[in-house]
Amino acid sequence: MSEIKKELSEEEITVEHEQQLATDLQLISLLRENPDILERHPELVAVLEVAHQSGGAVSLIERQVAVLRQKIQAQENRLRELMDVARDNERLAETSHRLAVDLLATHDVDDVVSIVLDTFRAELSADHAVVKLFTEDADLIERSAGLFVDVNDDALKAFKTMLQHKNTVCGKSTEEQKAYLFAENAERIKSVAIIPLIAGANLGLIGLGADNTQRFNSSMGTDFLSQVGELISASLAGHLDNRED
């Protein structure tokens, strides 16, 4: 007998659930057909309730205010991010312009290298900045140790792909690349940017290093570094041609 009552109870629950579902569907259909119903009957806003994440229920108008506040906060955060990006882009554009003007006034390779290193240290907060220029001239390598390097050095194979595809790298580098560029400072460097210098031919490399892992990371865009690399390459190419003459 108890089993029969239990079965009937389950059937009643099923019927009640189906009736509630049918009612809900009717209400949903009615609201869709009358989207302005709350405007015509504003008293409903105060009595309708919506479940809240913290428990309990709040009136529909309170819920709407809370949702509106969340949207406004999200929009403010997004606007702040866009303003930060705009300021960064403006600063980078100014840096690129000043660098271009300074490069036009250079007299030789040493001038170019000096301006480049100062710019990257000051404007990009690079803890370490180096320029390596390729040459086959043994005397030049000996006279300008650290700046001019042997283009046939096997160590440059670590940069082969980068130079072939003219790719600027931002983020992590191989241990071989760090050791070649930064020598005794390699172990302390946590993030790296490497800019190939190419103007018709492979002229060299610029290495930027930071003790902070986030200073140069893979999520950063490389457009600015690549464009600056082109400016520097063009300036160096002219001075290197004059040196050979």
Report what the structure shows.
- It is built from nine helices and seven strands, in the order αααββααβαβαβαββα.
- The chain is 58% helix and 16% strand.
- α4 (60-104) runs antiparallel to α5 and α4 runs parallel beside α9 (223-244).
- The protein has two domains: 2-67, no CATH class; 106-244, 2-Layer Sandwich (Beta-Lactamase), CATH 3.30.450.
- By secondary structure, it is α+β, with helices and mostly antiparallel strands.
List its traits.
Beta-Lactamase, 2 domains, two-stranded antiparallel ribbon, disordered N terminus, 9 helices, alpha+beta
Q: What is this structure's SSE topology?
A:
Elements (H helix, E strand, L loop, with lengths): L1 H32 L3 H4 L2 H5 L1 E3 L5 E3 H45 L4 H15 L4 E8 L2 H6 L4 E3 L9 H6 L3 E3 L3 H8 L8 E9 L1 E10 L12 H22 L1
Parallel strand pairs: 3-4
Antiparallel strand pairs: 1-2, 3-7, 5-6, 6-7
Structural class: alpha+beta
As residue ranges, the low-confidence spans are 1-5
- Given the structure, what is the number of helices? 9
Mean pLDDT across all amino acids: 82
Whole-number radius of gyration? 33 Å
Annotated CATH topology of the largest domain: Beta-Lactamase
Q: What is the share of helical residues?
A: 55-70%
Order of helices and strands: HHHEEHHEHEHEHEEH
How many strands?
7
Q: How far do the termini sit from each other?
A: 112 Å
CATH homologous superfamily caption of the largest domain: GAF domain
Largest sheet, strands/sense/barrel: 5 strands, mixed
Q: Summary?
A:
By secondary structure, this protein is of the alpha+beta class. The protein is built from 9 helices and 7 strands, in the order H-H-H-E-E-H-H-E-H-E-H-E-H-E-E-H.
